[in-house]
Amino acid sequence: MIKRLVCLANSQRPNGRCVAGKSTDEGIWYRPIGGAGRMEIGATERQYSDGTEPALMDVMDIGLTGREAGLHQPENWTLDASHRWSREGRVTVNDLGRYADDPASIWSSGSQSKDGLNNRIPETDRVAASLYLLSLQALELDAHTVRDWYGRVQPRLSGEFEWKGIEYRLAVTDPLAWERYMPGPGRHSVGPAYVTVSLAEDHHGFCYKLIAAVVPSPG
């Protein structure tokens, strides 16, 4: 089937991208995934006919073959690689309000890694959704370095915000945010912003919360 989506994430994964959006008719989240169990989308699979990348707030038509809901990602659908994606228009920042979500919480709280705050849930948690578009009053970004599992120093961009009285510090995987805010270490006050938060698959017993897209807002 062909679905028309507003692109609300085109974020980095180790071997490709995670693209997600909401349908223009139903307002329902869809996250296309590759075949043969691949969670990421390759460059040729997601590009438009002119070779360009889907951009945040693009209206695009994509082909899907069937739902592949996981335990922690119920919005997953297998991509129909035979259908080339097409750009059908754009929405503006002012249009994003009608696509925003208002969850009571951003999954469960109280578990965090060394560099995060309320940034993960146990793999035993079951969720009804793994994607939210949030309208934030204030977003802070922190460009810094961390040591990975092997002791190597790696750059990291983290986003800090409050939602329903709970504070969060989540890793940012939006490549455009990295281009803008990662030339060197430092803190950046973005102010009002729309962010897409995404729940990743299980990793060493936890599913991590990520900021997959950042769109500064007029407020």
Characteristics:
5-stranded mixed beta barrel, 5-stranded mixed β-barrel, OB fold (Dihydrolipoamide Acetyltransferase, E2P), mainly beta, 2 domains, 51% strand, globular
Provide a count of the helices: 2
Fraction in helix? under 10%
Query: Architecture of the largest domain in CATH?
Result: Beta Barrel
- Mean pLDDT rating: 93
DSSP strand content = over 45%
The CATH class of the largest domain turns out to be Mainly Beta
Count of discrete domains? 2
Number of strands: 12
- Which residues sit in consecutive blocks of at least 5 with pLDDT less than 50? none
Morphology call? globular
| Strand order in the sheet with the most strands | 1-2-3-5-4
Write the element-wise H/E pattern from the N-terminal end onward.
Answer: EEEHEEEEEEEHEE
Main β-sheet: number of strands, strand sense, barrel status? 5 strands, mixed, barrel
CATH level 3 topology of the largest domain:
OB fold (Dihydrolipoamide Acetyltransferase, E2P)
Question: What is the first-to-last residue Cα distance?
Answer: 37 Å
What structural category characterises the helix and strand content?
mainly beta
Rounded Rg: 17 Å
